[in-house]
Design brief:
By secondary structure, the protein is of the alpha/beta class. It is built from 11 helices and 5 strands; from the N terminus they run H-E-H-E-H-E-E-H-E-H-H-H-H-H-H-H. The chain has a 5-stranded mixed sheet with strand order 2-1-3-5-4. Helix 2 links the parallel strand 1 and strand 2. The two termini are 12 Å apart.
Amino acid sequence: MKQKFLGFFTALLLLLAIVVPNEASAETKAINEKLGVPIIVYGANLSETEKELVKTALKVAEEPEIDEISVSGEDLIKYIKNSNSSSRMYSSAKITRQDEGKGLVISIETPENITQVTSEMYANAMLTAGIEDAIVEVAAPKPVTGHSALVGIYKAYEVKTGETLDIERTDVANDELSVATSLAESAGISDDKVAELLTEIKKAIAEQQPATRDEVQKIVEDQLAKLEINLSDADRQLLIDLMDRISKLDIDFSKLSDQLTDLSKTIEEKFTALMEDEGFWESVKNFFKNLMDTISSWFK
């Protein structure tokens, strides 16, 4: 029996070796001398213990070099109008610049602790704010909504690029994040559906370039009907107000349309890529079938 159990655990370890990435075999990262090293921005209210948890989640130790800054309530009032400088900041992010045209790649490394904002919501808001071509990883050491990470991303982007973001755009982007999380909560719509709705409305605005609020409202109504989403009058008005603000921003909408098309594809493919790898899932299924057959044989 002892030998059989040893065989069981050996098989289990072999499965883990397949499923879990082998960090020891990963290639050593090279420093990007063109775009600079990644930058990590910590919520200013993290304790030292919490900060270490964030570092682990964001794989800071795997980077050959990294820049570190913090984001506080003082930064909040810089990027978001009428905000509270006493707000507590916990969610954190690591930002790695990419070459132009690479787009945004958003990864939430602690999904159990970012309770309201999804990766697609972050991407939508970042595009509205004017942030492009970056890998962004978000983490928090305990359950938080995830809103403060966006402010940290703004600050990190300015530090790394030397550019100054338009406060009107960052303020609208924050409004967009608030509307997205509000719709998901109050209207009972899934996070992915909310992200799809915002993306499709913004794409239509980019393509049609509405000149009046009535035209914006028609775009919103058309997309709600297309996606078969029913909103209360209050939520519908909230969405129209947001999109009217977005339509008035100083944005190159032709460029934004391409980026939003890419984001649409990301949302559509989010839950299908892994499932399409039939060979992998077939090997996992066979492994467990053989494992259960082996265990069953021990008790015959």
